[in-house]
Write a structure and sequence with these properties.
heterodimer; A: 95 residues; mainly alpha; 39% helix; B: 477 residues; Arc Repressor Mutant, subunit A; elongated
Amino acid sequence: MSLTLEDVRRIAHLARIAVDENEAADYLRQLSGIFSLIEEMQSVDTTGIEPMSHAQDVWLRLREDEVTEPDRHESFQSVAPQVEAGLYLVPKVME
Amino acid sequence: MQWEVVVGLEVHAQLSTRSKMFSAASTAYGAAPNTQACAVDIALPGVLPVANRGAVERAIKFGLAVGGAINRRSVFARKNYFYPDLPKGYQISQYEIPVVSRGSVVIQVGEREKTIRLTRAHLEEDAGKSLHEDFHGMTGIDLNRAGTPLLEIVSEPEMRGSAEAVAYAKALHSLVRYLDICDGNMQEGSFRCDANVSVRPLGSDQLGTRCEIKNLNSFRFLERAIEFEAARQIAVLEDGGVIRQETRLYDSDKDETRSMRSKEEAHDYRYFPDPDLLPLQISDAWVAEVYATLPELPQAKRERFVAEFGLSAYDAGVLTASREMADYFEAVVKALGGEPKLCANWVMGDLSGILNKEGLAIGESRIGSARLAGLLRRIVDGTISGKIAKEVFEAMWGGVGEADAIIDAKGLRQISDASEIENILDQIIAANPSQVAEYRAGKDKLFGFFVGQAMKATKGKANPAQVNEILKRKLAG
């Protein structure tokens, strides 16, 4: 799988990371190295082996459906850039 | 050319848990902004999600009710996109392995039944709300809803046209309320639909290019949006154009759908398994435990109402549309000790009429099932006629008292004494000699005139069956 500069720009845009042309070329080289490592691993025949999700044989723990979180919005909002009427304010987004 | 409209629906049902999908903050509706958004919901650094057993249990319940497969192992995935009401930058959802696979729902369109297959149902978390009113040119964010558990129910594209789509949405709405896993409140957004709509020449087995319509929070809007969108696509195709796959928004004020251009690139969600969450395991024992709690489901109840009470399929469908209505009806029949058709007519007629008029749910009825049965008992035993019963019903609704007390106080008891009715009829016949002559000369329609006179003379209290019988005999001369 070969990655192009265009792919790098697109990935950066989707991740909302500003990347200039020099950096893009650097990332292309680094990411291509990672991809070839993945390709190498994928050449191993894993037919019939269920993918692992954890090094140990463990499952998701569930909690009971109970409300235990107090209202801490004042403390949370004390570090927000802008707040009004209990709402967090952000630059306008509109469809 | 004749076209066929093909619809698939994605329904988001908010699960009725007390706490959120991955945090212990409250899900109660209508709280002051951000007072129910905890550190996990607002995505402070270092927090970790812990899944809610109650949400998983509700998903299992749904899966069993639709006859789907409950996957003993399912996986939570991250769906990545940026929007201010989604503070983490991703929504936790399920992608490759959902909690429920397949299943089906039977819908009724008129007197016809049709089975709609489901693709899957998966657990995910809701986003917050953006408020676009004027905050000095900024957008306000309320994260109370962020993290509320949702069950996304995805159907196969098996509905043909808006009527089937609405019937399916209503069947699901009824089902989740029967199961008590979602309150179904559409105004509050607890039950929302996205519709995938495409058209194709009638008889074709190829699917056309589809458009997804978002933001449908009423059955009426669902119907209107599908109809508008199908007509739009047909017009484009008949003009020789092509349909572009896209997301569209339904605007109920203008009754049209329009493209959401800004979402074009957002479709690359880069799903991957959430490393913060291990696979969800559901044991056979847990499934069996949930199975034991399943109530009688709408379809089974409908069939039973037809078999047990001799109701029509239509009446049974109306009465079982909600569990509360079905329970009310059964309670009336039980209290009355029979007469299911009479009970059905009153529950679907006068009672539903006044509830609709006053915007009340059946649980808020001012006349409970026992009191209605008390009224119907007096129709059955001949104390009052059906017509007088309506008057008594209105008085009961107005809070005047019980049926028997109203009947006595207002002197509404039906006149069933044959000699009294004979007397009244004799007087009417004597007072209207020309009508009697015309009737005897063959003008049958005048029979109604005499009945009317008898009812007028008795203020509607004469037993109609007896009036008919005695009148016939007397007029025959």
